[in-house]
Specification:
Blueprint lengths: L14 E4 L2 H12 L2 E6 L3 E6 L2 E7 L6 H4 L5 E4 L3 H10 L3 E8 L4 E7 L5 E7 L16
Parallel strand pairs: 1-4, 5-8
Antiparallel strand pairs: 2-3, 3-4, 6-7, 7-8
Length: 140
């Protein structure tokens, strides 16, 4: 695949709508530790998220905030879920599930950002084979 500095190298890049992408970028960087990669006019911002990315775009006139958080969630892997959760909470994130260690070897918390988008942050705490917790390994 040809590399292009105008788009993040990640294979999957979520694109989320916000009424004000500059406000969203500032909040996501402060609360979740992302960083700005590229600004495109005043309507689109690319953010670095570890070795991945997310793109913020200006909300279209027919979109409403009520629909944004329904039906999707973005999962981001972090080094320290508890510390990450505290920073997010300090910046106004709504924590919908406190940090919890799950039988599949991940410690996770769920949050909503100021625009209603759902986020899950996950820290690997153990390497558990899926057979041990009820999963079905197909191609690991």
């Amino acid at each position: 695949m040809l590399a292009n500095r105008s788009i993040p190298a990640a294979t999957v890049i979520p694109v989320l709508s916000y009424p004000d992408v500059n406000q969203a970028a500032t909040w996501l960087c402060d609360a979740f530790g992302f960083s700005v990669r590229l600004r495109i006019g005043t309507h689109r911002i690319q953010l670095n998220v570890g070795n991945a990315a997310v793109i913020l775009r200006e909300m279209r006139p027919n979109e409403t905030l009520l629909l944004l958080g329904i039906g999707h969630s973005i999962l981001i892997r972090v080094e320290d879920v508890d510390a990450h959760c505290k920073i997010a909470l300090d910046h106004g994130a709504i924590i919908t599930q406190a940090p919890t260690t799950h039988p599949f070897g991940e410690r996770q918390y769920n949050a909503e950002d100021f625009a209603g988008h759902s986020w899950t942050f996950s820290q690997s705490v153990a390497d558990i084979h899926p057979d041990e917790w009820g999963g079905t390994a197909v191609e690991l």
